[in-house]
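Student: Hello, beginner here. Can you help me understand the protein record under this note? Any guidance would be welcome.
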Amino acid sequence: MATASVAMLGAIAFHSNAAPPPGQLLAAQCFQCHGTNGQAVGGFESISGKKANEMFNELREMGQRRAETIMDLQVRAYTPEQLRLIANYLATLPKGSNRED
Protein backbone atom coordinates (compact mmCIF):
# COMPACT_ATOMS: atom_id res chain seq x y z
CA MET A 1 0.00 0.00 0.00
CA ALA A 2 2.77 2.44 0.94
CA THR A 3 4.65 1.59 -2.25
CA ALA A 4 1.56 2.32 -4.34
CA SER A 5 1.07 5.64 -2.55
CA VAL A 6 4.67 6.67 -3.19
CA ALA A 7 4.36 5.68 -6.84
CA MET A 8 1.13 7.67 -7.17
CA LEU A 9 2.73 10.77 -5.63
CA GLY A 10 5.66 10.42 -8.00
CA ALA A 11 3.33 10.19 -10.98
CA ILE A 12 1.42 13.28 -9.85
CA ALA A 13 4.63 15.24 -9.34
CA PHE A 14 5.93 14.19 -12.76
CA HIS A 15 2.68 15.08 -14.50
CA SER A 16 2.47 18.53 -12.93
CA ASN A 17 5.91 19.39 -14.32
CA ALA A 18 5.10 18.21 -17.83
CA ALA A 19 5.23 20.85 -20.54
CA PRO A 20 1.92 21.81 -22.16
CA PRO A 21 1.27 20.53 -25.68
CA PRO A 22 3.09 22.51 -28.39
CA GLY A 23 1.01 25.49 -29.43
CA GLN A 24 -1.22 25.55 -26.35
CA LEU A 25 0.36 28.63 -24.78
CA LEU A 26 0.48 30.41 -28.14
CA ALA A 27 -3.21 29.65 -28.73
CA ALA A 28 -4.22 31.12 -25.37
CA GLN A 29 -4.54 34.56 -26.97
CA CYS A 30 -7.02 33.14 -29.49
CA PHE A 31 -9.33 32.02 -26.69
CA GLN A 32 -9.89 35.61 -25.58
CA CYS A 33 -12.30 36.10 -28.49
CA HIS A 34 -12.92 32.59 -29.81
CA GLY A 35 -13.96 31.09 -26.47
CA THR A 36 -12.52 28.59 -24.05
CA ASN A 37 -10.64 25.94 -25.98
CA GLY A 38 -11.69 27.60 -29.23
CA GLN A 39 -15.41 26.89 -28.81
CA ALA A 40 -16.95 30.29 -29.29
CA VAL A 41 -20.24 31.67 -28.10
CA GLY A 42 -21.75 34.80 -29.56
CA GLY A 43 -20.58 36.38 -32.77
CA PHE A 44 -17.13 34.81 -33.05
CA GLU A 45 -16.23 31.71 -35.03
CA SER A 46 -15.30 28.49 -33.23
CA ILE A 47 -11.75 27.57 -34.16
CA SER A 48 -11.31 24.21 -32.46
CA GLY A 49 -11.29 20.95 -34.36
CA LYS A 50 -10.56 22.43 -37.77
CA LYS A 51 -8.03 20.74 -40.02
CA ALA A 52 -4.55 22.02 -39.18
CA ASN A 53 -3.58 22.86 -42.78
CA GLU A 54 -6.85 24.72 -43.33
CA MET A 55 -6.37 26.78 -40.16
CA PHE A 56 -2.71 27.47 -40.93
CA ASN A 57 -3.57 28.71 -44.43
CA GLU A 58 -6.33 30.98 -43.06
CA LEU A 59 -3.96 32.46 -40.48
CA ARG A 60 -1.18 32.94 -43.01
CA GLU A 61 -3.54 34.69 -45.44
CA MET A 62 -4.72 37.03 -42.68
CA GLY A 63 -1.13 38.03 -42.05
CA GLN A 64 -0.52 38.79 -45.71
CA ARG A 65 -3.52 40.97 -46.45
CA ARG A 66 -3.96 44.62 -45.64
CA ALA A 67 -4.60 45.08 -41.92
CA GLU A 68 -8.31 45.84 -41.64
CA THR A 69 -9.37 43.71 -38.67
CA ILE A 70 -7.97 42.79 -35.28
CA MET A 71 -7.19 39.31 -36.65
CA ASP A 72 -5.09 40.77 -39.45
CA LEU A 73 -3.02 42.50 -36.78
CA GLN A 74 -2.95 39.60 -34.31
CA VAL A 75 -1.43 37.09 -36.72
CA ARG A 76 1.42 39.45 -37.57
CA ALA A 77 2.73 38.95 -34.02
CA TYR A 78 3.52 35.28 -34.77
CA THR A 79 6.12 33.61 -36.97
CA PRO A 80 4.95 31.06 -39.57
CA GLU A 81 6.34 28.34 -37.29
CA GLN A 82 4.26 29.63 -34.37
CA LEU A 83 1.15 29.81 -36.57
CA ARG A 84 1.75 26.17 -37.54
CA LEU A 85 1.99 25.19 -33.85
CA ILE A 86 -1.24 27.05 -33.09
CA ALA A 87 -3.06 25.42 -36.01
CA ASN A 88 -1.80 21.97 -35.06
CA TYR A 89 -2.89 22.45 -31.44
CA LEU A 90 -6.36 23.75 -32.34
CA ALA A 91 -6.85 20.74 -34.61
CA THR A 92 -6.47 18.43 -31.58
CA LEU A 93 -9.36 20.06 -29.70
CA PRO A 94 -12.98 18.90 -29.96
CA LYS A 95 -14.82 20.63 -32.78
CA GLY A 96 -16.77 23.74 -31.81
CA SER A 97 -20.47 24.00 -32.43
CA ASN A 98 -21.63 27.33 -33.77
CA ARG A 99 -23.02 28.50 -37.08
CA GLU A 100 -19.56 28.95 -38.62
CA ASP A 101 -18.57 25.28 -38.20
Remarks:
- The two ends are 49 Å apart (CA to CA).
- The chain has a mean pLDDT of 83.
- Residues 22-92 form a domain with the Cytochrome Bc1 Complex; Chain D, domain 2 fold (CATH 1.10.760.10).
- The chain is about 55% helix and 0% strand.
